[in-house]
Amino acid sequence: SAVISQKPSRDICQRGTSLTIQCQVDSQVTMMFWYRQQPGQSLTLIATANQGSEATYESGFVIDKFPISRPNLTFSTLTVSNLSPEDSSIYLCSVRTTGELFFGEGSRLTVL
Amino acid sequence: SQKIEQNSEALNIQEGKTATLTCNYTNYSPAYLQWYRQDPGRGPVFLLLIRENEKEKRKERLKVTFDTTLKQSLFHITASQPADSATYLCALDPTQDATDSWGKLQFGAGTQVVVTP
Question: How many CB pairs below 8 A link A and B?
Answer without folding.
Answer: 49
